[in-house]
């Protein structure tokens, strides 16, 4: 395949689901990759980090439309819905602007994805919790933003694992919409309504932070086992305290880094892979100190 002429100045946009500490880590990885490429290639790469204030599909589409009108060199988005269903993404593709998704699967052959296996992540978390509670008891599962492909995949995987255990009762754990305060409020309601709750699962990085806070306030530490998602600092600190037993984590800085690398390659016209798997980490009491030291 013949490549495109290399440009001396590039501008890429990172559009997360919402303003959130997890996405700040993605941006750090993106900025580091941009600096590395710029220094090695003698070019200037600018990163625009455009986070919606709340997880809202209309707001995310609006940001996409505005970015597309500026003719940037590439876009990486963590979509709040299936990319095939977002009209703004289709418009961008018709303009010839490279666009990829991160922290999300992609069923569109023309849109590459950077992230991990979200179904596997959900399975690992649920299977760990099942063992912790002896395959019996009451378990709450908190949803994230229900239409977000990665949150949906994790949730469905967790529920599927739990349903295989005849002695486990599944409880509606609430919906946090990727908002830490909402997660706390939802968890407090669930804990109050289910004093005999044995375990809690969630589907995003807001869930474990909110759940941990609600558990501490209700004096349920060590009484309710929590296996979280992701590994940003508040989650790591809750694991260290023992409020969260463990977490199955994505690697956000790598997702940001690889997103910029793929977008840069796209500007050259080279063929890029359909999917980049950035892996998962299982964070426990045994390895928490190493994660905290590098956070």
UniProtKB/TrEMBL annotation:
What is its subcellular localisation?
Answer: Cell envelope
GO MF annotations in UniProt: carbohydrate binding
Identify the residues that the record assigns to the Periplasmic binding protein domain, covering every copy.
14-265
Pfam families tied to this protein: Peripla_BP_4
Please indicate which superkingdom the organism of origin belongs to: Bacteria
The GO cellular component terms are: outer membrane-bounded periplasmic space
- This protein's major location comes to other
Membrane-crossing residues?
none
InterPro entries under this entry?
A: Bact_Solute-Bind_Prot2, Peripla_BP_I, SBP_2_dom
Give the UniProt family note.
Belongs to the bacterial solute-binding protein 2 family.
The name under which this protein is listed is Sugar ABC transporter substrate-binding protein
Q: Which lineage do the record's taxonomy fields give for this organism?
A: Bacteria, Bacillati, Chloroflexota, Dehalococcoidia, Dehalococcoidales
């Amino acid at each position: 395949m013949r490549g495109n002429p290399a440009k001396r100045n590039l501008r890429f946009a990172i559009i997360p689901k919402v303003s959130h500490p997890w996405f700040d880590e993605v941006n750090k990885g993106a900025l580091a990759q941009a600096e590395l490429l710029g220094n090695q290639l003698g070019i200037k790469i600018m990163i625009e980090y455009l986070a919606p204030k709340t997880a809202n599909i209309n707001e995310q589409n609006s940001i996409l439309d505005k970015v597309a009108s500026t003719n940037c060199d590439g876009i990486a988005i963590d979509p709040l819905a299936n990319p095939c269903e977002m009209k703004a993404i289709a418009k961008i593709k018709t303009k010839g602007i490279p666009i990829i998704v991160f922290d999300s699967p992609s069923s569109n052959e023309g849109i590459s994805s950077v992230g991990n296996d979200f179904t596997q992540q959900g399975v690992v978390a649920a299977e760990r919790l099942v063992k912790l509670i002896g395959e019996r008891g009451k378990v709450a599962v908190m949803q994230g933003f229900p239409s977000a492909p990665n949150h949906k995949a994790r949730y469905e995987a967790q529920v599927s694992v739990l349903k295989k255990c005849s002695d486990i009762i599944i409880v509606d754990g609430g919906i946090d919409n990727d908002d830490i305060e909402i997660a706390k409020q939802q968890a407090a309601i669930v804990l109050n309504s289910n004093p005999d709750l044995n375990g809690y699962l969630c589907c995003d990085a807001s869930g474990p932070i909110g759940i941990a806070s609600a558990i501490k306030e209700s004096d349920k530490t060590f009484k309710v086992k929590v296996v979280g998602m992701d590994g940003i600092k508040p989650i790591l600190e809750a694991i260290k305290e023992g409020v969260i037993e463990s977490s199955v984590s994505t690697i956000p800085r790598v997702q940001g880094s690889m997103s910029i690398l793929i977008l840069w390659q796209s500007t050259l016209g080279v063929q890029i892979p359909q999917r980049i798997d950035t892996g998962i980490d299982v964070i426990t009491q045994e390895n928490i100190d190493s994660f905290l030291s590098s956070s």
